[in-house]
Design goal:
about 280 residues; mainly alpha; single chain; 12 helices; disordered C terminus; about 0% strand
Length: about 280
């Protein structure tokens, strides 16, 4: 006789969590994590407020820096050419305003150009040493600003020339040739050639002029460089054959005539003797 094993049905009650819908489940988690979510939201709001405050502060600082820079530039450019005293006063005001921009708003985008203009104004005001230090400060703070670095170093070289320091000027000019992206390399080569000429070194001058003509054929300095090369090559050329030909020897004195024989002398003496007068 066979027996069938009867399997009882599972009547385990369902867990309450399985009966909660997806939306209810979300709200349930939200309730449990409410404190953490509020803290996170507060942090986000505070961070956003800080960022907004910094942006607003930078914007306001940039506006004030631009106003000071524009006012300084007006004093710098509107100097009367016929009134040296007034011109110096304008330069002094420009220097003061440019200094305010740099000291009060160093992070503004106006600061680099203000520092460059400050150095220019100081040199014009005969504060050459102060101008040199300002240019060096720019090179230290804004070395990545290649568009201005070349101009700053060129002005630095001119300042050294104003002091009579030709070696430092050449060093500053030469450094510009190593700046990638510098826009004034053609002008620098022209200035280096002029310095070589002033020191009576035509070979060095010609080398710089030829470098300028080769690498920057469209430069406004190329035509002048070509003229200078021709002039220097003429000075270097040896004397022309006509000039080098030694002068012709001076004409020799005529050879002395041989003396006439004695008879000829006597004959000529007789013929030259006057006839005696006839007596009356």
């Amino acid at each position: 006789m066979s027996y069938r094993i009867r399997v009882p049905a599972k009547d385990d009650p369902l867990d309450e969590a399985h009966l909660i819908s997806g939306v209810d489940r979300f709200f349930h988690v939200l309730q449990e994590q409410r404190r953490a979510l509020l803290v996170g939201l507060g942090v986000v709001l505070v961070a956003g407020a800080v960022v907004a405050g910094v942006v607003w502060y930078d914007y306001q600082s940039t506006l004030k820096a631009r106003e000071l820079d524009q006012e300084a530039t007006l004093h710098y450019l509107n100097r009367p050419a016929d009134d040296p005293k007034k011109s110096q006063e304008q330069l002094a005001q420009a220097i003061n305003l440019y200094t305010q921009v740099i000291d009060q708003y160093p992070r503004s985008p106006v600061a680099p150009i203000a520092l460059f203009h400050l150095g220019n104004a100081q040199v014009l005001a005969n504060q050459v040493d102060a101008g040199i230090e300002t240019y060096k400060r720019f090179m230290l703070l804004y070395s990545s600003n290649t568009s201005l670095m070349g101009l700053v170093q060129q002005r630095l070289a001119y300042a050294f020339l104003a002091k009579g320091d030709r070696d430092q000027a050449v060093k500053a000019f030469t450094g510009i040739l190593d700046i990638p992206g510098a826009l004034n390399k053609d002008h620098v080569l022209f200035e280096l050639a002029k310095i070589e000429e002033s020191q009576s070194r035509p070979e060095g001058a010609i080398a710089h002029y030829q470098d300028l003509m080769k690498n920057y054929p469209n430069s406004p300095f190329t035509s002048e460089a070509a003229v200078r090369v021709k002039v220097l090559e003429v000075k270097k050329a040896p004397e022309s054959p006509a000039a080098a030909t030694p002068p012709a020897p001076a004409a020799s004195a005529p050879a002395p005539q041989p003396e006439a024989p004695a008879k000829a002398k006597a004959a000529s003496g007789k013929s030259a003797k006057p006839a005696p007068k006839k007596s009356q």
